[in-house]
Write a structure and sequence with these properties.
- With 455 residues, this protein is mainly β.
- The strands form eight sheets. The protein has a six-stranded antiparallel beta sheet, with no helix packed on it. Strands 1, 2, 3, 6 and 7 form a five-stranded antiparallel beta sheet that branches. It has a four-stranded antiparallel beta sheet with strand order 8-9-10-11, with no helix packed on it.
- The longest helix has 13 residues.
- The protein starts with 20 loop residues before the first strand and ends with a helix.
- The relative contact order is 0.09.
Length: 455
């Protein structure tokens, strides 16, 4: 597989974490990143004007050489690094800036997800001894400096979501048009959805839905429980003695991702420890979540899933990776035809009490639809019928035998980035025949780190 190695300049700087970095997330504008680690801390970095490009630090810590403007990532204040959980932190996610500077983090040991808000706090000015006349001028200078830095930005814990019975493995804010919601997945096999009813009161996050994705019997059982007057539905259930015996090794939900299309109802893709990758969709008519599409499963645990942003396409793209070493791109079609719709035609009406429409698609189907005229009190209670999702194709990408751990799409949903055991980030694009190829490898230059170790 021929790939192009990127020769772009990479900036390597210390993460300041004392353990492995588990997750990195950009904010909506790409000007801030948040990192979480096994050292139980969160660090929020800002993109600021810094050293010029091509500059390298010398032995004294100063920079020399290079020209032209450049930027660097920096911690603006001490409030940008804080301990978030009692144990290792696995995932984090930014909310849309319309709701403020909000982060959600999930920890492994405290079985909870925490919502953080960046607030401006006022620090007390430094005190000084007025009896020491010799140091009065110096102390006044220190006090003035303290007053200049009195107002600092700090991250404050607003709420803690503690409904999970086991470790919370993933959490993600919903798209802006769905309101201020959070979906969390946990090792007990449940996806729980919380919503801030009042965006001005971030201390109150009631849970309105819980979806059982990975059942105790480690089968395809999926049960939806809804609160606040919503109905409950139980889907297909299977029991098997051998699966019950192996359920002690199950880690439940491992990854989830929201669909951000404004023209779709609330939709999630969820990956589980059993290797299942399932799309769940919320129905306004039944007021419950149900399985929409079951994607081809991985032979081992699903490590990550990502739903591509939709920019007007008539289909959706999803990516999943698993412990079986497979990186797969799934293509979902919208509508009733299993392939592209080729033509539609509305029949002339000559006094009939109903309408006739015809449609044909690439799937070879020619369909005649009959619409009844009335007051809108049909089977859908006056609402337009909800379009369905159907799996069109699933393509496995060639990763040169390396296991992929994380996948993420660019902002337009046209480039897929994957990272894993190969020590590099691979960028994937598809051609007009839907063939996915690796177009670039991004790998940092760690030669100076190796030289420092040798010294």
């Amino acid at each position: 597989m021929a790939t192009q190695t990127s020769n772009t300049l990479s900036l390597i700087h210390p993460s300041n974490h004392s353990d492995f970095v588990h997750d990195i997330a950009f904010d909506h504008y790409g000007r801030r990143i948040a990192t979480c680690s096994g050292d139980r801390t969160i660090r929020v970095w800002d993109l600021v004007d810094g050293v010029t490009d091509q500059q390298q630090p010398n032995n004294n810590g100063d920079t020399e050489g290079g020209s032209g403007p450049a930027q660097r990532w920096a911690l603006k204040s001490n409030g940008c690094e804080f301990q978030a959980h009692r144990g290792s932190i696995s995932r984090l996610s930014w909310a849309h800036p319309e709701f403020g500077q909000l982060l959600v983090t999930c920890g492994s040991s405290d079985h909870s997800a925490t919502i953080w808000e960046e607030r401006e706090t006022t620090a007390q000015p430094a005190a000084f001894d007025q009896s020491d006349n010799n140091n009065l001028s110096n102390n006044n200078m220190s006090a003035n400096m303290s007053n200049d830095k009195a107002n600092t930005m700090r991250w404050v814990a607003k709420a803690q979501l503690t409904d999970a019975r086991k470790a919370v493995t993933c959490a993600e804010f919903a798209p802006r048009h769905l309101g201020l919601r959070i979906a969390t997945g946990s090792a007990d096999g449940f996806v729980r959805i919380y919503e801030a009813i009042d965006v001005m009161n971030l201390n109150h996050w009631p849970m309105n839905t819980s979806i059982e994705v990975e059942s105790s019997s480690n089968t395809s059982e999926s049960t939806t429980h809804t609160q606040h007057g919503h109905s409950s539905s139980s889907l297909q259930k299977h029991t098997d003695l051998s699966s019950v015996l192996s359920s002690s090794q199950s880690l439940g939900v491992t990854a989830l991702s929201w669909c951000n299309s404004r023209f779709e109802p609330a939709t999630l893709v969820v990956g589980g420890h059993s290797g299942n990758v399932t799309v769940y969709r919320y129905s306004e008519s039944s007021r419950a979540w149900s399985v929409s599409v079951k994607l081809p499963r991985h032979r081992s645990a699903t490590l990550d899933v990502s739903w591509a942003p939709n920019v007007g396409r008539c289909f959706h793209l999803l990516a999943s990776c698993g412990k079986d070493g497979r990186l797969t791109v799934h293509k979902l079609k919208r509508g009733n035809h299993r392939s592209a719709t080729l033509d539609v035609s509305w029949a002339p009406n000559v006094g009939r009490s109903f309408h006739l429409l015809a449609s044909c698609g690439k799937d070879g189907r020619l369909t005649v639809h009959k619409l009844k005229r009335g007051n809108g009190n049909g089977s859908n209670n006056g609402k337009p019928p909800q379009r369905t999702l159907a799996l069109e194709s699933s393509n496995d990408l060639d990763t040169d035998g390396f296991r992929v751990w994380r996948v993420e799409w660019n902002i337009t949903g046209t480039v897929l980035a994957s990272s894993g055991d190969g020590g590099k980030v691979q960028l994937w694009k598809s051609d007009f025949c839907d063939r996915w190829k690796c177009v670039s490898d991004v790998q940092g230059d760690f030669s100076h780190l190796n030289q420092a170790r040798e010294q």
